[in-house]
Structures are given as C-alpha cells and as structure tokens.
What we know:
The protein folds into 3 domains: 2-54, RNA-binding S4 domain (Structural Genomics Hypothetical 15.5 Kd Protein In mrcA-pckA Intergenic Region, Chain A), CATH 3.10.290; 63-125 and 206-228, Alpha-Beta Plaits; 130-204, Alpha-Beta Plaits (2-Layer Sandwich). β12 (164-167) and β13 (172-177) form a beta hairpin. α1 crosses α2 (16-24). It is 24% helix and 28% strand. It is elongated, with a radius of gyration of 20 Å. It is an alpha+beta fold.
Amino acid sequence: MTRINKFLASRSGLSRRDADKALTEGRVRINNKMPEGPWVQVDENDKVTLDGNDISGADDFFYWAFYKPKELLTAYGDGHGKQTLEVFPFLRENKPAYSGRLDYDSEGLIIFSNDGDFIRKLQNAEEKIEKEYIVTVNRVLKKSEIEELRKGITYEGIHYRECIVEQHSHDRYQVVLHEGKKRQIRHMFRNFGIRVKKLKRVRIGSVNLNELQPGEFREFSPKELREMV
C-alpha cells in the first residue's frame, strides 16, 4: 500500500507538493471517487486518474526528447498571449513533467517523462548532468573572457560554476554546463556586455537533438535509456 500523494508523485512526474495541490483541487480520483486526503492508501488493484487520465499502470513510463521551438513558453496553462506547451496535443492532454526549461526566445532539447524519479534526478544540481548549447553572440569573446567563463563567474550576486566554452566560429560558441540556473547563459555573456542572439540546447546527458526539427518528439533510444534512466 502507498499513500496517494506519493503514488501521484511517482507515476505522474509531479512533485510531492504539486501532488498534494492536485488532491486539494479535486483533480484526482481513486476508483472513480475523490480521495479524502493525501493520507489515503492505494495498491496495484486501484484505478487512479489525474485530470481524467489513468496513471495506474506500474510500468507505463515514457521518455521523450522534444525540440522546443523559439517563441514558445516552457509551461502549461495560460500564456497571456504567448503560445505554451499546450499547443502540442500530446502535452496538452497528458501534461507530463519535464526537465530542461528553456526561456521564450531560446530553442532546443527538453526531456519529458511520467517517471517522477527520473525527472527529479535530472533536476538535481548535485547530479551534475551536462547540458550542451550552441550560442550565437553579437561580438567575439576575448581570450581572457573565455577563461573567466571557464573558471566560473559571479553576475548580479549569482555565482555560476565553471563550465566548458569553445569557439566554433567568429560569433558561435559551444557551452557545456553542469547546472541550469534561470537565463544562465544569457547572464554569463551579459557580464561582459555581450548579447546572445541565438541560444540552442543540443544535448542533455547522453540525449542529443539528433535529427529532430522544431516541434518534433522522439522516444529515447535503447542506448539512451541504459545510460540515462
């Protein structure tokens, strides 16, 4: 037997806090009945639904790579005039958890799964999972600036860890991070008065964009499953 809030967190990708909120909002049913509270116990014979979607299956986990296009909010719900993840039917209907939030003007790889433990692993800074980006900027970095970025910098009171920075062409750089703070790369370059013109994430851990085009999904390959999950 498992408490319903823990069950929700493991099967839906919700955090424990969001699972409690879903229960309070009446979005959960156990055998077609609303549970009395987060303490209610369930087992493998119970049918549990979240927002009308059956999440009872113990082994029905999925792991998807997604190419987020530019000018799309990495969020569900009302975008206040901006498109959100809900423009994609699969995401609108299932609202799976994700790791690798990208800002509105950035593009590239995001990972979706209904395996809550896996998503939390990706979001745990202590795991130091690599995230690789191709960054186009408005001027060439000086060698001293590249060295500063590699060693780690502090910008507006926020410290950014050491990272990998390699020049691809006169205005394009490969950046590999082991953390994912809000608007991190833009802030790192802004520290030197440099504006990021284009930001594209191409890899998380061993998962690459490969041939994905903006707005496309693909399942993890067997090799990616072995190495990531």
